[in-house]
Write the structure tokens for this entry.
Amino acid sequence: MKTNTKKICPVCKLQGQEVLRKSDSGERLTYKCARCGKFTITHTAERMAEKKNLGPKLSGWIRNLFELGMDIPEINTNSLTEIEQSIPDYNPSDKQYLFLRNISRKSNYPGDGVSILPELDYPLAWASAPEEILFYIRFLVERGLLVRGDKEDSLVLSDGSVSVAKSPYGWEYLDKYEQRAIELSQAFVAMPFSESMKKVWEKAIKPAINDAGYKACRVDAEKHSDKINAKIIAEIKNSLFVVAEVTEHERIVYFEAGYAIGRNLPVIWCVQKEELDNVHFDTRQCNHVVWETPEDLKEKLYDVICAVVGRRKKI
Ligand SMILES: [Zn+2]
């Protein structure tokens, strides 16, 4: 049934957005939102998204599909769970990269100006508000990755828009970043090679990493050595993230994780519940998994990987 009703967007709450189609007696509505783009959502999924506070993430997800010219996504309770699991918690540097990539799609050549309306375009940077995308734009200009497309004093023009263009450095930066993301499907695992940890590796860590779509790699280090050997360094450099299992408090594990942190790689810490009080990291500030059984670790680690780095297609 065709309809021209205007409604508040259930995802980003923008007033007066067009309802393109109603089906299943109104249970399923297809919207065209000026901020999110086009999507179909069921009432139950709408309520679920609201309860889980998924608004900004979902808005970023829909808008990015829309920008890519993909089919109108269908959001129901099942797909919403899948979507939620597949969207990582992007950090500010990821968001700047993703925004830069969107600018690049919109521009035909380096220096080609693109007009951004922060109020409607903040999902292009997976941001939650216009202020957040403005913050990234300012920072990208400061980093030399974007240049202003106008000669005005203030960044935001009188019509509320911002004009930016990707600088040659921005193109170079994107190339490097993308190359890295394509190549890296490996997770480095820092953990002891002890007999007691064998089961943890085989039944929990390795399958959790594989299920999230990554290849798990671990290198046997010289026992109780404080030195990181060349092989370990090479493998960490080839990894997208690191899983550090610290239940046995092996110093080498902390060294490997420390090296990864120094390279700005996400580190996911794992520790068995009984040893939690003895570990050398602040669990309040880190991505961590406190586990009781290998089965428990497998499940929790998988969830944290999906949340921190995102899930890849199964390898
Ligand atoms: Zn919307």
Notes: The longest strand covers residues 17-23.
